[in-house]
Amino acid sequence: MRVRVDPAMCQANGECHRICPDVFQLDEWGYAFVEGDGPVAPELQAAAEEAVAACPEGAIVAEASSPKGAEGSQG
Ligand code: SF4
Asked: 3 has which bridge partners?
């Protein structure tokens, strides 16, 4: 599972960070981001999914990890 935050939709209420601070960081203005847009560690997936569901803006995009593990370039 991978998650990323759509910065155009995030309203900086910090809900995701409250639920899952290991995955969702906040910048100096309180907008959320995911460092490296990397994969979520297995032990953090439940909390990350909770944060996705809790985001009132629907700003968090979750994707299943590729079974081939194709990591690397983004966008
Ligand atoms: S919960 Fe959603 S809107 Fe709030 S800071 Fe996180 S990504 Fe942004």
From this structure: 62
- Answer yes or no: is 7 within a domain: yes
Q: What is the mean pLDDT of residues 57-64?
A: 94
Q: Assign residue 20 the CATH number of its domain.
A: 3.30.70.20
Written as six digits, the tokens of 56 are 């009132």
Burial class (CB in 10 A: 0-12, 13-18, 19+), 41: exposed
> To test the ligand 1 pocket, which listed residue (3, 9, 13) has its Cβ within 8 A of the most ligand atoms?
13
Residue 15 alpha carbon to ligand 1 centre in Å: 6
Could you tell me if the CB of 62 is within 6 A of ligand 1? no
- Give this prediction's pTM: 0.84
Q: What is the pLDDT of residue 7?
A: 95
Domain that holds residue 7: 2-63
What's the pLDDT tens digit per position in 10-56?
999 999 999 999 999 999 999 999 987 678 999 999 999 999 999 99
